[in-house]
Amino acid sequence: AHFLPCSVICRRPPLCKPLSTCDGVPAGLADADTIFALSSGHGRCGVAVVRVSGPESATALRRMAGLTHSLPPPRTALLRSITDAQAKEVLDRGLVLWFPAPHSFTGEDSVEFHIHGGPAVITAVLQALGSVPGMRPAEAGEFTRRAFQAGKLGLTEVEGLGDLIHAETEAQRRQALRQMSGELGRLYQDWSHKLKRCLAHVEAFIDFSEDELIEDGVLNQVDRSVCNLQAEMERHLKDERKGERLRSGVQVVIAGATNAGKSSLLNTLCQRPAAIVSPIAGTTRDVVETALDIGGFPVLLSDTAGLRDSSDLVEREGVRRARERVEQADLTLVVVDSAHLPTDAQQAAAFLQGHLRSVLATEEQCLLVLNKTDLLPDDQRQKLDRELRQVSELPPVCLISCHTDEGLQDFLTVLHSNVKTLCGDPLSGAPTLTQARHRAHLQQCVAALAQYQRYRDTDLALAAEGVRLALTSLGRITGRVGAEEILDIIFKDFCIGK
């Protein structure tokens, strides 16, 4: 499960084709080193998997598993004694699997040794593999990099694999699995194919229109395609960053006046004493963060200093940081001490509206959390709850008591609903953007298509350059675009030189 960030994986120019192949093994990999590494987690476990990939994989399999003649059938588990050929010592007894090229994760000849997961066994097997000529330990992410170079995975699939390995919640797992399956990559590849066709037609018109080898109306078709693609990409970008938010976690900030019960709410949600709770005002002076799983969605919950004017320099810095976090928040939980509310519902609503203006810089998404309701008489609490829910100028209101847990379940239901809305359903609709780099390249792509439309009637060469820049931006996301493909489309569509 080795993973390398995409910025390190793609060391070739952004406009590149998959490496050419010979006998099923990509050129450039056929003469590469054979690499090996522990592919399962470190530490004691029942079974550990050691992966080998490269041209000497078959040699390693024969030496380590004592196979003198034929290799085992592909993808078939074979129980063998794992031996150190140099020391002539049995290291373990486990399963071996043979994956001949190109039908393996990396596209190369590969072997997997499924051994017992004790540290001594793993170390002995890795040392024995290191003694085989032509083999070396794998670098971080090198298996995945070879899979990319062999055309087994695109960059978006590689990123999906990395997200799947690091997924901590159910929604993150679903999104990562969808991206790793290639759905997002196929969307970008489809756009790339359409852009290549547009560019091929424009360049063919520039080069060959005077020879009357190009059909009439070619540029009109390009105009329609470019317009439709630009509209599709703009809709794709207007996803409110749901995919990125789901991948990194929803920023939920607890804010409010001092002694409203913010730290108590944090501890209640965490179910542990993550923050100090004290009746002394201004106890929390820095931001306290904790990661939570709210109904399968990742949340980064932050408790902040109470908002008030203070002469204490440390507390003033805490208040500044609190306001900064509120501005960055996806969702703000504005906590209010319900015992300080006016008894009249209308006056209470006016008080809460003024309090929201003092806490929120703009009209950010928020929930009003009225804490310490156990201090109110039952009739006053019920009347307050009933009448405040009818005030349309207020955000959703939740009455809770962190001391008795009253109302907590209803609050969690509302919180989960808001977090789910912010992240969206990872399995429904078109695949969403999950990486900031995808967004940046797509924005460049849209700007380049706008260049085509700007110069379409005045300078066709500059217009074509806009399409080329758009194709380059998409190529940086997928990792696969080649100039040869443009030529293929020109000759295929127009049969020039027939």
TrEMBL record:
Listed CDD domains: trmE, TrmE_N
Keyword GTP-binding: yes
Main localization (coarse): mitochondrion
InterPro entries in UniProt: G_TrmE, GTP-bd, GTP-bd_TrmE_N, GTPase_MnmE, MnmE_dom2, MnmE_helical, P-loop_NTPase, Small_GTP-bd
SUPFAM superfamilies named among the record's database cross-references: P-loop containing nucleoside triphosphate hydrolases, TrmE connector domain
Keywords of the record: GTP-binding, Hydrolase, Mitochondrion, Nucleotide-binding, Transit peptide, tRNA processing
Keyword Nucleus part of the UniProt annotation: no
Annotated TrmE-type G domain residues: 249-420
Biological processes annotated in GO: mitochondrial tRNA modification; tRNA methylation; tRNA wobble uridine modification
Required cofactor(s): K(+)
Compartments where found: Mitochondrion
Gene Ontology CC: mitochondrion
Catalyzed chemical reaction(s): GTP + H2O = GDP + phosphate + H(+)
GO MF term set: GTP binding; GTPase activity
Short name of one Pfam family: TrmE_N
Entry similarity comment: Belongs to the TRAFAC class TrmE-Era-EngA-EngB-Septin-like GTPase superfamily. TrmE GTPase family.
NCBIfam families recorded: mnmE_trmE_thdF, PRK05291.1-3, small_GTP
PANTHER family: TRNA MODIFICATION GTPASE GTPBP3, TRNA MODIFICATION GTPASE GTPBP3, MITOCHONDRIAL
Cited function: GTPase component of the GTPBP3-MTO1 complex that catalyzes the 5-taurinomethyluridine (taum(5)U) modification at the 34th wobble position (U34) of mitochondrial tRNAs (mt-tRNAs), which plays a role in mt-tRNA decoding and mitochondrial translation. Taum(5)U formation on mammalian mt-tRNA requires the presence of both GTPBP3-mediated GTPase activity and MTO1 catalytic activity.
Record's protein name: 5-taurinomethyluridine-[tRNA] synthase subunit GTPB3, mitochondrial
Species annotation: Seriola lalandi dorsalis
